[in-house]
Write a structure and sequence with these properties.
This protein is an alpha/beta fold and about 475 residues long. It has helices at about 5-10, 15-20, 40-55, 60-75, 95-115, 160-165, 170-190, 205-210, 215-235, 255-260, 290-295, 315-325, 345-355, 385-400, 445-465; strands at about 80-85, 120-125, 140, 145, 245-250, 260-265, 270-275, 280, 305, 330-335, 360-365, 370-375, 380, 405-410. Strand 9, helix 12 and strand 10 form a beta-alpha-beta unit. It binds phosphoenolpyruvate and cobalt (II) ion (CO).
Length: about 475
Amino acid sequence: MQTTARRVILERCGARQTMSDWTPSSWKDREAAQSVAYPSESEVDRTVEEIAKLPPLVTSWEVLQLKSQLADAVHGQRFLLQGGDCAESFDACDSGSIANKIKVLLQMSLILVHGAQKSVVRVGRFAGQYAKPRSEEFETRGSVTLPSYRGDLINRPEFTPEARTPDPRLMLRGYERAGLTINFIRALVVGGFVDPHHLEYWNLDWVRDSPMVEEYRRMARAIGDSLQFMENLAGAHPGGFHWIDFFTSHEGMLLPYEQAQTRQVPRQEGWFNLSTHFPWIGMRTADPDGAHVEFFRGIRNPIGVKIGPGMSPDCLKRLIGILNPDAEPGRLTLIHRFGSDRIARCLPPLIQAAKSTGKPVLWCCDPMHGNTRTTDGGTKTRNFDEIRSELDQAFDIHRGSGSRLGGVHIELTGEAVTECVGGARGLSEVDLSRAYRSHLDPRLNYEQALELAMFMAHKMRAINGRSPGT
Ligand code: PEP
Ligand code: CO
């Protein structure tokens, strides 16, 4: 454990001196919230060593390219769309689920590009979103108490002592599943699946029977026409048109796993966490003196921090100072998640605090995690109206504070699940049992996700001073 005096000295030092004190495992000297009690620490170390020898899942070039795109978003030239499951599961690592997630994100980004008239940075919560923080360390059913399910990287959901005991070998399984996922996504991107000349590849069933189908079709036709116009103007069909790319992200909660793929690369300074492009620190692990912040300050990736109602302006200022000491645009994204009833009170002081540091941050709204409710029957759900309302307020509050909302962070799936209530199809609590598949938080289904994208498109058009829907 570092002494307070030493820590204060470190914080007063410039970034370079501070970095000389950092190693991929220096987090171990700090308190780690949400840490996992493994039966054998030596097995953890062996697994970390094994993963460390395996190839990286992403490259430093991609990581730096994303950082530069996020810097554009800070300056208002792009908009960040980050989305995916609350927790990926090893069982759902199949072509249908992955392709459907890509389709939803592509369609949402299409709607946003059209509405916001700016490029969209597409970041999936995938290829590593396997570890979860939990409010309750244990779960009791009847007279039996077992550790809570913490995500497939840590233990398994079945309610048995064997399944719930943390198993370090699951980190290796997670690395492999992440590798398989990213491999398939890269193949889809390179293989033409994301070619905007073929918007029909992205269609999910909803396009046939959704209440919003006409508006989406109009938008897709307008995009097709613009593309044709550009190509006619250029006098050529730009073959191999790969302007659409995807980046990966996950909550960097399980630090041994994050450490395992953290390395130096030839011709680059510093350290990269090559298990993902964009790791983020969860709300429960964002203690400026804690292990997670220590680990994250030393990697060169763009990083996110979730901030909730418990974050004070002073704490936020400290976090910004530690995590973005060089005031690098694109380095730090603040993902706020307050709830539709609290955002108006909680967000403005934090915007002012961030401004007072003089260091750039990208502001992103997660309208999901502050709006989780439990029904009388005990099912976790979220109401579409509250999600939309938090997002709506976020745009206005930033604008009113001389700031800018530069992105959105959403839990969604490409499947027709019934986990969140509301939306154009008017899902109600009685519908929840029909197709509730999440082991953890409720996700927007593809139709609700696209409805939210359309809402954002209208909102951004209105903000940009154009009439909505044109
Ligand atoms: C999550 O993103 O799934 C999550 C647990 O979020 P938060 O840290 O904001 O609660
Ligand atoms: Co979640």
